[in-house]
Amino acid sequence: MADTVGADDRPLMARxxxxxxxxxxxxxxxxxxxxxPMVARMALPRLGGAPAVWxxxxxVYQALLLAGYAYAHWLGRVRPRAQxxxxxxxxxxxxxxxxxxxxxxxxxxxxxxxxxxxWLLGLSIGPLFFAVSAQAPLIQRWFSAASGGGDPYxxxxxxxxxxxxxxxxxxxxxEPLMAIHAQSLLWSAGYVLLIVLVLACATRLPKTLxxxxxxxxxxxxxAKRILHWIALALVPSGMMLATSTYISTDIVAMPLLWVIPxxxxxxxxxxxxxNDRWLADLLTRIAPIxxxxxxxxxxxxxxxxRPFFSAGIAxxxxxxxSVALHTALYRKRPAPDRLTGFYLAMSAxxxxxxxxxxxxxxxxxxWTYEYPLLILAxxxxxxxxxxxxxLRNLWMxxxxxxxxxxxxxxxxxxxxxxxxIGNPDGLLGDSQQGIAFLIVATIGFAAIGARLPYxxxxxxxxxxxxxxxxxxxxxxxxxxxxxxxxxxxxxxxxGPDGGxxxxxxxxxxxxxxxxxxxxxxxxxxxxxxxxxxxxxxxxAAPALYGxxxxxxxxxxxxxxxxxxxxxxxxxxxxxxxxxxxxxxxxTGQFTYLSRCxxxxxxxxxxxxxxxxxxxxxxxxxxxxxxxxxxxxxMHLMTREAFATYGRVLAPGGLLLVHISNRFIDLEPVVAAAxxxxxxxxxxxxxxxxxxxVDRASAxxxxxxxxxxxxxxxxxxxxxxWTMPTPRKGFAGWTDxxxxxxxLLKGF
Length: 747
Hints:
The chain is α/β, with parallel strands linked by helices and 747 residues long. The chain contains 25 helices and eleven strands. Strand 1 (480-483) and strand 2 form a beta hairpin.
């Protein structure tokens, strides 16, 4: 074909060829990152929201991605046109699984996510995900062959732009505008387009292996270099997940927060692999400074009174580390004939980083210790240059000057640490921590370029400005526990009457118990105080349903609501996190259950799945307390979920829904569900006059019943119950459609 093209047409053909390959790789990456949240959204009603489900799903994605990259690497051994034929065949066979969706399979009640989730997802989307995941390395190799040795690595930047576009498109555009069925059809149409684009790219491939750019002629990488590639990919991948966990645990729990770290992680590839190198080189040069300064700041807790500013610091730190280490990967890239092996090593490193941060760390650590450990690893791997020539001469000197400087690097942080830890209220204590930070930062700048001294200062700053406080809590028995749902911290506050004990889930209070006399310890507090909506409903239960009322509560917390239990009543709790059960029932730290309901019926697992297996008319009152944190399990708020609640409740039963939330206005969701489900609904916005008496908290509870008399009984006791305010034009959530964007407060 090339022989029939005139010389004047060749630049135009080259541009067209490049555009075609870029469009193909963009489309494949867009579809790959669009399908992951889409399938997660499809699976929520069936699998629930337990972390074991999503950890298993993550392993499925990582395994399929690795398999796709390994397949692309293997495919490089055959002739280019044969590669195209094989890959088009794989794409066409995978198209038999269109339109994309979950297969019809009912899981058993006691299904283990580690076994059933991989099986379900593998059968549902495995072939499609596998075929698309091979696109990025394969199309880059084809471009090198088709262009006669053109640099394919810039296409990796385009690949990650496509991934970023798919990532943000789902929560911002696809989910708000389309139901699940329409999303499936959209993705399926995109997959057909991808097949057409791959076919167009295949027509540009040479027919033989004659090109040196197709056959692997360069020296193969050694084991040391491959391990270096894996490490450079592992740290940013783990850092991305650790940043999401750390921000939501210790700074601010905000909806859609996971999109930002993942988006920055993907954009860092686009910067690091771009043809224009100035931005990547600039950010890499200043990355050691950023790691030293921002690592210390974020470990100190940032600025607690300005959580979004602190979150911004953590995100900048993530982006700088990712750009620097991905730039190091770019600089150590092999020749194009070894490209697929390079990407296979990168994929393995990314998978290992994800496994470490998402699966290993919650089991091994009781706090987000993976975060400072990954910052340390980044400091060890990031490229460094001396800031000025005199510092280079100092650290390159062979005499005793170098060792004196190294001793100072070690001793000065130790002295500062001793002053801060031993005398926290003194000159270098918390009130004057800026002085300590300035001292450590100064010697840290002097060490940049010299790896060992720099690492000593970085480690000292991480311990000095927050690490030691975390270690203190870890050493204190029972003060902190971690599960896949987050970090739980138990705090004691002394007082003249016995003080209080508080359970925090990251930045969210999960319960407070008054300590001292038995009467104090049986007092409901926070969102569950007597004046709250759920408190009033619990007090009205004997009059409404008799002495044998059947009460259900979704969300155990510290067990506060159990102190509304009366002799003869039958209670059961639905709790998804075993760590919460241990804190409320087994450790003795909170005594609500032991004093008020010694032998509670606690059903473990996702509440919606558990309730779906309960008998009809088996509850008189159900309290849905799944929203005391700032995360929203959407599958508990859909029309189908409310139908399940209505089936389990008796005809005159009461449903109480806790909708207190700092970021999302859930009132229109419940109002729409009530209207569409035939419920009568009222809301009580409880604002206690004083939080000092029983530590009551402001709360919003919605009461729903299909019997208006139950609602009338509540309103007769307290006229503060009012009709919820619907939002004009707002459609209620369903299993097929839901979005939080129109409900975000302040937006």
